[in-house]
Amino acid sequence: MTIGVYGIGSQSGRAFFADYLAKGYDVIGYARNSANGNIVLDAIHSIKGIYLERPENANHEESRFVPFTKNSNVTSDLSYFVQNVDIVIIALPSIYQEDSVQQLSNAGIWKRRIPIILSPSRTIASPYLWQILGDKYPIVCFSTCPYSCKAPKPNTSLIKRRKRTWVATLEGDFAKQQVRMIKDLFPQAAVSRIPALTSLNNIGAIFHCATYVLNYDEITKRKNNGEAYSFYMEGIAQRPEVGKVLEEIDQVRLQIAHKLDLNTFGLKENPREDIWRKLTNGQRALEEEHENEIEILRSIRRLFMEYLNNSIISAQHWLDITYGVIRQEGECLSDAIGRTPTYQKNSVPQFRYVEEDIPTGLVPFEALARMLNIRCDIITDIIDKGSKIVGKDLRTTGRNLEHFSKEYIVDYLKGNV
Question: How far is 376 from 402, CA to CA, in rounded Å?
Answer without folding.
Answer: 17
